[in-house]
Target: Metal-sensitive transcriptional regulator
Amino acid sequence: MPDSLKIVEGRALSAQQKKDLLNRLARVEGQLRGIQKLVALADAPSDCEAVAQQMAAARKALDRSFVQLLTASIVTHTGNAADIDEARESAARLAALFDKFA
Model:
């Protein structure tokens, strides 16, 4: 996780959830930098397969980050709800986000 990012406490995600997600995103960022180097150094046709494989891995890692964000949000938002109706509203709103972006 970049040291320049200050994690603030809030109601969206806990500090630990934010830290875990930021660490995962930093790993994805590292994967993308590695892919950029592979592209820059690609010489033979077989190099394209290696690039494609790494791109697929990075995409999968980013998809996993998305799922981690939504599951953490569901846990936090429903757990912090004042009552069952608010918890249901939060769950429905997050399910709509999942449906929209997944």
The mean pLDDT is 90.
